[in-house]
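Our consortium's second objective concerns turning raw sequence data into structural hypotheses that experimental partners can test. To show how far this objective has progressed, the report includes one record in full. It was chosen at random from the queue rather than selected for favorable results. The single chain below, 409 residues long, was entered without modification.
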Amino acid sequence: MKPEIIARIKALSAQMTERRERFLADLISIRSHTGQERAAVDRMLDELRAIGCDEVWMDSAGNALGRIGSGPRVILYDAHLDTNEVGDDPASLAAWPHPPLEPVVENDTMFGLGASDCKGGVAAIVYGAAILAQLAREDRAVAERLADVSVVVMGATLEEDAEGFALRSLVERDGLRPEVVLLAEATDLTLRRGQRGRCEVRVRTEGRAAHASQPHLGESALLKMLPVIQALEAMNGSLPVDPIFGAGTQVVSLIEGPHTPNSVPAWCEVAIDRRLTPGETPAAVLAGIRAIVEPLGASARIPDQPVLTHTGLRLDGPSFYPGWLLEEDHALLAAGQATNGALWGERAPVDVWRFSTDGTYSAGAAGIPTLGYGPEEEQYVHTALDQVSLSKLRKASEFYALFPLVYGR
């Protein structure tokens, strides 16, 4: 890559510092719980127009999208706008050093809800696109490159509760299938080439209801569930093992029954949070659990995840989110390393995520090569110290500006 291009990217990134940080602060100040992202989507659409995208739109699932370039090879940058929920009551807010929706900058750090998951990533990809758009206006070679590739920037919805569902809608309902996907989730400026998957399994026992004053007339489904829970927990240690991700795990995370405290419960259901190694399928997961619980009189199923977008579109689907792993010698990973090397003269560390991302659809379900790179740090995700380094945010913007000029050359 020509040194003058690298220098110009860094100069433009520095010039855009105030705009980039103001945009991030605006996003943090907007409450955008899953399914309630419309105000944040509108704010991002305004920013995409302001930076000079060739096309700006909202898709049927309510994702905010902007395109730079006109080429047929689509590079998709994905960062989600929804955040985990934090209540407004004093007990919920007590641990936060600053109010969650009131962004504060201290030294090089911006604090606020979603800074690390994933509004810092949104600002990084939007201003990567802003730098790229300005370069294309100044440099004929860059403009010619963008006749071969298009960069689509996506402010995704729904990720916290139903990762991948909004991206699936973009690909399968709206027909935009990228060649590769980059996820601006928390990586601390390193590269991520995979993740564990997850699924929810519901296990149910049936009994016979009776008035609590005559328990001998009934059969408690709750008592029948006790050995089932013990058997489910005992499966840990014998679940599939992956050389990169280690062993799968499962946790009984919820128990439910009839809301009638003066009756013998006629049914009982537990939810299992199962963490998956790449390659596990719904059929295989259910077969293993059923082999344990059916002899104890219980049944097992993977439920549908109810998903309603802020546009009113229903995207309900199985609560199964597969894991994935990009090969060490894949061209996408090589392009990420080449981008990092061109900007900073060194190789980036490579790792995998332990949590789940929109890559569960792009790579895990659709087979689209996917790579992670973001300015945020995993240690602050979903904590009261939610934050992002502003210097790392600047560097991530530079990475996203240069990447399309490196990829596939």
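The partners drew two points from this record. The mean pLDDT is 96. The chain is about 35% helix and 25% strand. Both points have been shared with the crystallography group to help prioritize constructs.
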